[in-house]
Design brief:
single chain; alpha+beta; Immunoglobulin-like; 5-stranded mixed beta sheet
Length: 274
């Protein structure tokens, strides 16, 4: 008895199989091969004649060629029984064939393939297992797992833990939103933001926005703002008839006016700072 492995659903040949001479015990030269001598059983089913009758190959030798069709290999196990039914010229024999390389085969794994295909689900499981096996045993600070003292390269994914050191490089991508109460009174240490931490231009924009702030609150841009209030303390002021005129910083362009009421002998008609 011999055992072979073959691909599921693929034609399969066995070259050089030897039959033993019943009289001499030696390999039989040019054995007689007749229909009905070779019966195939698939997965325990009924025995049927092999589709292709084996032949002595090469001619006049002792080797025979056994050929199995693709349909004959559509099973998990195949058993080929060899019996010289007519003349008892050679000994009875049998072959067991196990199929591979298909979910319906005896073994789904194809041991004859040059490469092995892995499903998407299996790939995901493999990656998760390798990551877990690498990460879990290294949970101390400074190891590969939970704590890393520094990142020399780029972080292309998410940072789920805390960054306890400094970020010395730049963020060239988009920083996502901060959730409600994401910034608290403890989010910034003392002097985390001071004049040394912001550019001159940014500081000037903050100052300009304060000057444009509406005195009533809620926005900027109204004429009743901090800038116009300060103008009445420092810039040119003139009482022109019944109108109080407040000038811009050039002391020539009106900033805002107001109706003025004077009494007899009004001693001041204009204030024009140098």
């Amino acid at each position: 008895m011999a055992v072979y492995y073959a691909r599921y659903g693929a034609a399969f040949d066995i070259q050089g199989y030897q039959l033993v001479d019943r009289a001499t015990g030696q390999y039989k030269t040019t054995p007689t091969l007749a229909a009905g001598d070779f019966k195939l059983e698939k997965d325990g089913g009924a025995a049927v004649n092999l589709t292709t009758l084996p032949a002595v190959t090469p001619a006049a030798g002792s080797s025979i060629k056994l050929s199995f069709s693709a349909a004959e290999m559509q099973c998990q196990q195949a058993v080929l029984r060899m019996v010289d039914a007519a003349g008892a010229e050679w000994n009875d024999d049998c072959i067991h064939i196990f199929t591979v390389g298909d979910p319906n085969a005896y073994m789904a794994f194809d041991q004859f393939a040059a490469t092995v295909g892995v499903s998407a689900a299996s790939k995901s499981d493999i990656v998760a297992s390798v990551w877990s096996a690498s990460r879990v045993p290294n949970a101390t600070v400074g190891s590969f797992g939970e704590g890393v003292p520094s990142v020399q390269g780029s972080v292309t994914g998410d940072v789920e833990g805390d960054v306890q050191g400094g970020v010395l490089g730049s963020v060239s991508g988009v920083v996502g939103g901060i959730g409600p109460a994401g910034i608290t009174s403890t989010s910034f240490a003392a002097e985390a933001l001071n004049a040394d931490k912001i550019s001159q231009g940014f500081g000037q924009k903050i100052a300009d926005e304060i000057l444009n702030r509406n005195l009533a609150g809620g926005g900027s841009g109204n004429s009743r703002n901090v800038r116009n209030a300060l103008r009445s303390l420092r810039n040119r002021i003139r009482v022109n008839g019944g109108t109080l005129e407040i000038y811009q910083e050039d002391d020539a362009t009106l900033a805002w006016t107001a109706v003025s009421t004077t009494t007899a002998g009004n001693p001041i008609t204009e204030i024009d700072p140098s």
